[in-house]
């Protein structure tokens, strides 16, 4: 078929004018620039016509809190890695290098917002008030999760790639329906939103596409937060996509913003803007946090097999902690006593985590039967009784010796 024989589209331009939602142009895209950055690698502040005001609203205590959380969660990450190397954890998923993306976005959320993490959002967990030691029961293999998601509105870690993105959109649609029902009863509902975290590798999963279709169709109050750390285990981002991941949002009809993921101020500002928009009922936003995974994908991975060491060295000067520390010192917002106290808090957390992990006990098989269904199930109870009778039929060595 020649070019002149190509079929025409179903609708012509005049017909499309009757459906403004079909045009991508009117979709607000305050982050359509190449990258949103408010604090550069040298620790210098920059302004922005939209997001600069969000950073200006942060007082010195909030800024010091950002640094404290980033430093503390990095120390936690180091301790968890050491525990795995010592055989106390079956696996660990490091976050070093991605602290700003997580702490900045996590602090932009409100308590009533619900978070759907992958398996690397240790910094987000910290901002939600989680005891980070709880995260490790999963990686020690003694729990399916380790915490009640309803306590902090922080879902259990999802190891199945991108599955949590579907769950997040479904939950966001549930918020919409609860809100509508509350208004019908004459009540004033909470203005809550949802954040779905995933990585650049997960962006290639069909689950992400399907989630964005539903989120766009129903204007769901959800923020898609993609941490582009440049490597989906051993596959580089250049293989995952030929355009910035944030640009994919345009195809669904909602804003996509690429932010410097190592700039905690910019990440916080962009996420707060997106969440405010979602809570107002204006629909989803895709945020691509452009960051870098300084370490391995997991402790079972050897990144030297697939990426050059020089690549990591190029990213180390962009360290999120270093740039915020430089800014705090240059502006006279923190002294050496503050940084010493942060180091002390990090060590206290590391000691707590190690003590808690070493005290964790593996569940008995009887306890495992209790978690098959939310309530007692006659078939499961029958299987448990069979197992108990089977186990009781064995004569232990001690009983044999006594007999």
CATH superfamily name of the largest domain? Thiamin diphosphate (ThDP)-binding fold, Pyr/PP domains
The description of the largest β-sheet is: 5 strands, parallel
What portion of the residues fall into strands of 2 or more residues? 5-15%
CATH topology heading of the largest domain = Rossmann fold
State the separation between the terminal residues, measured CA to CA. Answer: 90 Å
What is the CATH domain class of the largest domain? Alpha Beta
Descriptive overview:
The protein is globular, with a radius of gyration of 24 Å. The chain folds into two domains: 338 residues, Thiamin diphosphate (ThDP)-binding fold, Pyr/PP domains (Rossmann fold, 3-Layer(aba) Sandwich), CATH 3.40.50.970; 37 residues. Helix content is 46%, strand content 8%. The N terminus is likely disordered. It starts with 12 loop residues before the first helix and ends with a helix. The chain is built from 18 helices and seven strands. The strands form two sheets. A five-stranded parallel β-sheet has the order 1-2-3-7-6, sandwiched between helices. It has a two-stranded antiparallel sheet with strand order 4-5. It is an alpha/beta fold.
